[in-house]
Task: inverse folding
């Protein structure tokens, strides 16, 4: 399921890069694509970004399985377009191996309850269909990222279980956007808030 989720995410990124180049329907900047999600969506995002070699996937599935479904990229369309992302927004996710994270890896902002009984906050195992699977949650990811000198931030919901977010997500939105601002807007010239870069702050 994790591998199929990775394939779906990579296919979506390839689609948006193709569309940006050919049609520009969505008017996105395909040089700054960020991925993320809650729980399973976060797991797909984390593993998609931090798995860089097929050898790392072999801790999850067999070589025959990988060969039959299109390797790391999958075969869901738009081959030839890059499927990498520039950052991750991780809400209660986990990764299969913390050693997949490397020096210089893409930034991540994480939010997680330290008593999460569904997706471990630290380095506990999770039971799926009767199988105990070792995973590494947001706490370990943040520690490894910071130890490597990578850009990472973590908000811990102390004493909270899975997806303990505020009702209107105001806090989560602000925490994530504060972290991402310097990445998304790095190197930009002009006036803050001037989205269409016409030197005027207005409805356009």
Result:
């Amino acid at each position: 399921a994790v591998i199929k989720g990775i394939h779906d995410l990579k296919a979506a990124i390839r689609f948006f890069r193709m569309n940006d180049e050919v049609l520009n329907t969505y008017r996105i900047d395909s040089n700054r694509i960020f991925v993320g999600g809650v729980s399973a969506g976060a797991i797909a995002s984390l593993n998609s970004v931090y798995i860089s070699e097929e050898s790392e996937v072999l801790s999850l599935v067999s070589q025959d399985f990988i060969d039959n479904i299109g390797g790391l990229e999958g075969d869901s369309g738009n081959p030839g377009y890059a499927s990498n992302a520039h950052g991750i927004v991780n809400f209660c996710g986990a990764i299969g191996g913390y050693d997949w994270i490397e020096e210089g890896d893409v930034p991540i902002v994480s939010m997680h309850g330290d008593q999460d009984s569904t997706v471990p906050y630290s380095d506990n195992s999770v039971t799926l269909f009767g199988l105990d699977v070792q995973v590494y949650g947001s706490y370990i990811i943040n520690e490894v990222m910071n130890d490597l000198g990578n850009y990472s931030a973590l908000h811990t919901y102390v004493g909270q279980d899975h997806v303990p977010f505020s009702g209107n997500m105001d806090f989560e939105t602000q925490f994530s956007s504060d972290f991402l601002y310097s990445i998304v807007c790095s190197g930009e010239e002009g006036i803050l808030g001037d989205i269409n870069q016409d030197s005027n702050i207005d409805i356009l």
